[in-house]
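CHAIN AND CONFORMATION:
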Amino acid sequence: MCKPAEGSQRVLTLGEIRAKRERAISRLRDAGHPATPQRVAVIEALLRAGGHTCAEHILEDVKREHADLAMNKTTVYRTLDLLLSLGLATEMRCVDGRAQYELAAEQAHYHLVCTCCGARLELEPSVAEAIRSAVWRAHAFAVDLERYPLFGLCPECQG
């Protein structure tokens, strides 16, 4: 399953969690989609995760927090697909190709993933922009760093 990201992830306050939850529900409704209990539960699970998490952990969280709610893996994936299509969630691929999700941040953020141990680190936006610009200048190629992390070896695995 997934491994939590390391680095500059700040823990949200209860007020911030409530505000993000309400914003996500509002955007869901504004796009013409009902805020079903299952969809709200997935949004809440993403908020509780505090960063990237896999569909399996989302399902476990929803079943733990909402034992009376009918929820299965298909419902989780369908809800994630909807949230992705509305720009309410982002997806990142791991070394093994599995997807991990989080609620979309107000600002884009980027990741480094160790191909040896799977550790994830946050990449500074200025560094990501420099990489993106260098690749564009050299190859006229637009790199998608929001969905795809940069893979390599972390400091511990290099030694």
Observations:
- Residues 29 and 35 are 6 Å apart (CA to CA).
- The longest strand covers residues 89-93.
